[in-house]
Design brief:
The structure is a homodimer. Chain A has about 260 residues and is an alpha+beta fold. Chain A has 9 helices and 10 strands. Chain A has a 6-stranded antiparallel beta sheet with strand order 4-5-6-9-8-7. The radius of gyration of chain A is 23 Å and the shape is elongated. Chains A and B meet through strand 7 and strand 10 of A and strand 7 and strand 10 of B. Chain A binds a DNA duplex (30 and 30 nucleotides) through helix 3. Chains A, B: It comes from Actinomycetospora chlora. Chains A, B: Keywords: DNA-binding, Transcription, Transcription regulation. Chains A, B: This is GntR family transcriptional regulator.
DNA sequence: TCGACCTCATTGACTAGACAATGCAGACGT
DNA sequence: ACGTCTGCATTGTCTAGTCAATGAGGTCGA
């Protein structure tokens, strides 16, 4: 049974299990052999078996549900389309564009909103052209789908811009924060999207209730007005096992290409 | 010294070290205390200390360089702009658009190219509208910067489309594979970009020489001709610690919005 | 019938060791 | 001065255990 090959024993055990998962023998949601049974199968101590399990957990292939056992993780990704923010208007007043899409798939969305005044983190300060001692208004949102956290969505606005507006109220803004910004004379016509891939910080992991082996994408949007002034930064944190980020491109015409920049 | 707080000891050790890293006390590249010294600091066995280290390694904060010690990982991300593929023409014949950008920053790029004929993986087959028994031409590339692997770039083409063309030759195509496709009557005017975030498979990890705790982004591009026929799928695997994916958007005019789709 | 309690299989946390592998630095020889 | 060799600090792998925590399922009593 012990498949030959170089390397430490725990790697071989992990390789065997991984192969059984990828071959479909252990399908999504299936229960893996118990640590105990693997110790006898491979004639090693439980510590070694646990090391093998750790490998698979860190790869995101397996989750441990103590004390029921280890299970093959099932991954279901929903498509997240940053571009749609500007393409479609929400159908349901009380939800934003992202959630809207999910309602039609029969899911039950909800969200929590909190508003804070604070100094911006370095990346946000740099993009809004502020110093780190300036104050920003932060709207922190956690979006849920069928009761489990789905992603977080923190928007940062310069205080002076949104002072006293609806944006500072910790309730959903039916028509969207962007519309409110436009009413304040800061309509956005241009945006820069940045995506950073990394493991979650412990805060993020607890806010999103994600387990070990799940990386996140940090999708940062900086919105600019027509005259190039940054007026909004959004940081979306998307757990990797629940999202597929999608966007589309059309080839610019020759004229557009030549006049670019 | 043992900072109080709930949870297992190894978490507290990890928390302490993480705090020292984030506060800047242990800057990028700094050496962490040895496992031995931590065992005495916290009065635990080395197994417990190792568990704490494992946490930080899995978070991508720390790398182990055996047997020199554990070090704070230094992350330097280069900006990757999927949209530029269609916006600018390469300046250097022998390099593609992505590498081109890096040359100007004084880096030394290189790449390896291999061409294979095989059946497509499921995701590619679905997007090209092929069965899993059809044959595709795969151009596999690994791009290096200053000698270390930077990302992989695997392009899939339907065999019948590129049969006998330059695309099947395992050498760099100066004018770009897209130009060759256009010459074959399959000019792409539309593309769908998808980004999936996950931990690397063991192959990917070895191909890209990435350590534990580094997630990857899989950037998949499907290119379509004017009449909606998919002619190319590219799978780029980007290690999270070396890439920042960026793209830009301009708000569509009212007319464009109303006539969309 | 239904809640309270108990048992048990299983994973989590930790101790106390042993030996292997490997860069690095310093000693040594030519 | 320069290559080689050797010792050593440090991490990697593994054994052999103990006790804790917890969800699930079954027992029992009202």
């Amino acid at each position: 049974m012990t498949s030959r090959g170089a390397g430490p024993i725990y790697q071989r055990i992990a390789d065997d299990l991984r192969a059984r998962i990828q071959s479909g023998e252990l399908g999504a949601g299936a229960k893996l052999p118990t640590e105990q049974s693997l110790t006898t199968d491979y004639s090693v101590t439980r510590a070694t078996v646990r090391q093998a399990m750790q490998v698979l957990v860190n790869e995101g292939l397996v989750v441990s549900e103590r004390p029921r056992g280890h299970f093959v993780r099932q991954i279901e990704r929903l498509t997240y389309r940053p571009q749609k923010e500007w393409r479609e208007r929400p159908l349901h007043r009380e939800l934003d564009q992202f959630m809207d899409e999910q309602v039609e798939l029969g899911r039950k969305p909800s969200q929590t909103i909190a508003v804070e005044l604070a100094t911006p983190p370095a990346d946000v300060a740099a993009r809004l052209g502020l110093g780190e001692t300036d104050t920003v208004v932060i709207r922190k949102r956690v979006r849920y789908l069928d009761g489990t956290p789905f992603n977080t969505n923190d928007s940062y606005f310069p205080l002076e811009l949104v002072q006293g507006s609806e944006i500072m109220h910790p309730a959903d803004i039916g028509r969207g924060a962007n519309v409110v910004l436009a009413e304040l004379g800061a309509e956005q016509t241009h945006a820069v999207d940045e995506i950073e891939v990394r493991m979650p910080t412990p805060d993020e992991a607890s806010r999103l209730e994600i387990g070990l082996g799940v990386p996140v994408a940090m999708h940062r949007v900086t919105g600019y007005t027509d005259d190039g002034r940054p007026v909004r930064v959004v940081r979306n944190v998307l757990p990797g096992d629940r999202h597929l980020i999608a966007f589309e491109r059309t080839r610019p015409t020759k004229h557009e290409r030549d006049t670019e920049r």
